[in-house]
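All the exercises in this workshop are built on plain-text protein records. Sequence and backbone structure share a record, each on its own labelled line. The question running through the whole workshop is how a given chain folds. The record below serves as our worked example for the rest of this section.
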Amino acid sequence: MIRSAAIDRRSFVKAAGIGFLAALTPKSLLALEQADAVYASGIRAADGSYAVATVTERGEVVDQVALPARAHGMAFSAITGMTVAFARRPGTYAMIFDARNKREPIVISSAEGRHFYGHGAFSPDGRVLYASENDFDGNRGMIGLYDATDRFSRIGEFETYGIGPHDMTVSDDGRLLIVANGGIETHPDFGRTKLNLGAMQPSLALIDAATGALVEKHMLPAQWAQLSTRHVDLDDKGRIWFACQYEGHRKDLPPLVGHFAKGEDLSFIDLPEETTRRLANYVGAIAVNRSEGRVGVTSPKGGASVTIDARSGKVLAETTIPDAAGIAPARSGFAVSSYDGDFLSTRSDVAWDQHIVRIT
């Protein structure tokens, strides 16, 4: 359950301490004091440099932490207050920092023969960081395990039982790792080129977080073998919502959003034809607002965000947002960013990257 916006802001300010607050400009301090909630997202600045920005729900940038290269997905631990920015595929760095203070960030590198896939998640107790990775010579999806109590030293890895894992999350009880295996083969020697579009194997996997054993694996129907499973989130019932990107013919109308739970088959949401066309066969991000029972998706290719009722599957709202990028739950509905620099009602001289994380 999302706490009230006032508690979100007060908890962030309290945890930040005098040193952090004193370092802010008066404008940033005022924005933080008036904030409904606090988020973090990767940005590209006007000078071409990359950073992670701390941002209010209204889109006012509070602070920035420089990055060595472009980031993609973010992860946050509510227990420790640590945030992680993962390099964009096929990047090899992840930077861990505390947005509430000025301590030196920790930068880690992927293991030899591995690269990050841009996403990861903390265990509920904040002690382990899980990262989606590629064993590029073995063409195997992997999850890297990092000890958050020991400067994020690498302590092992699990298979994802699929190819091309992208987003992943952890069940609320910490027992299951939930992985969207996009099914697309890549290798850093070929950059971001997709090497097997004619023989994709998209799937969703549930993995035992203690042992790495496969609990369940759900392959997509054969007719949608080119429907890459990309992003996941959980609702208040523990149901897994997933969003897809289609690599087939542009005139096809594949299902783009679905859900399942342990022991259940995959179920796709029957979106109206005009909504599927509006999303341009490409969902770039998904988020669940648990308190409202809503699911939000964005499409940079379609320039739109769509809100779905989690119980009925009905479309509640569609909004035109050119270059729509990240999405995360807000006090009401969702906070949405764009590559053009829009974050809800505010435009900044930055390009917001693909994902947003709420840091409270």
Summary: Confidence is low (pLDDT under 50) at residues 1-7. The longest strand covers residues 114-122. The chain has three helices and 28 strands.
